[in-house]
Design goal:
Blueprint (H helix, E strand, L loop, with lengths): L2 H15 L5 H16 L1 H12 L13 H7 L9 H5 L9 H79 L19
């Protein structure tokens, strides 16, 4: 496609304008990019490799991504290559190192389970202690409320007894009900 040529020429002109320390290497990179992107099949390969974040293969490189990256002379790097570079040495390669990694993972998982069980035990013990404190607090409140209730009930009985006594004394001091004294109308059948 000649469209890439339209992009390449202004880029080269801009390259000449800038005082770049390596214009020749930049020209080589742009030429390689044009070679890759000008053909349909190589463009598809480039898109596929870009999607999987592996460096594009330039003509004459091998299919293995590491060797392609090593033999590729351009400075192209995947957008997140620095992030993924930290994991290159992490995965164990040999059977012994895989077994060692497996044992390490099992040990870490055991520690995690142990910490989880210890946390559960701690929560259980704390819950039981809190329940005990709550019960003792509620028992104390019940005792206080019961004491107040019993005291109030005893005073109420004493007051009732005192009132009954006063009523009985008041009835003994009062004269029996009868006709009012003094002149007045005498009912028939009674003699004056």
């Amino acid at each position: 496609m000649n469209c890439w040529g339209c992009i390449l020429v202004p880029a080269l002109n801009k390259l000449n304008e800038l005082s770049s320390p390596s214009p020749k290497s930049r020209f080589v990179e742009l030429s390689e990019a044009y070679q890759v992107l000008s053909r349909e099949q190589s463009r598809r390969n480039y898109d596929h490799q870009l999607r999987w974040a592996t460096p594009p293969k330039s003509p004459g490189t091998t299919a293995h991504p590491r060797s392609a990256h090593q033999t590729h002379s351009s400075s192209w790097t995947a957008p997140n290559a620095q992030y993924w570079a930290q994991f290159h040495g992490v995965r164990p390669q040999g059977p012994e190192s895989r077994q060692q990694q497996h044992r390490h993972n099992q040990r870490v998982m055991g520690y995690c389970l142990l910490i989880m069980l210890a946390g559960m035990g701690l929560h259980y013990a704390a819950f039981r202690k809190l329940e005990q404190m709550h019960r003792s607090f509620m028992d104390e409140k019940d005792r206080i409320i019961t004491a107040i209730y019993n005291d109030t009930r005893a005073r109420a009985r004493a007051n009732r007894a005192r009132l009954q006594q006063e009523q009985q004394q008041g009835q003994q001091l009062q004269p029996p009900p009868g006709p009012p004294p003094g002149p007045g109308i005498v009912p028939p059948g009674t003699s004056p």
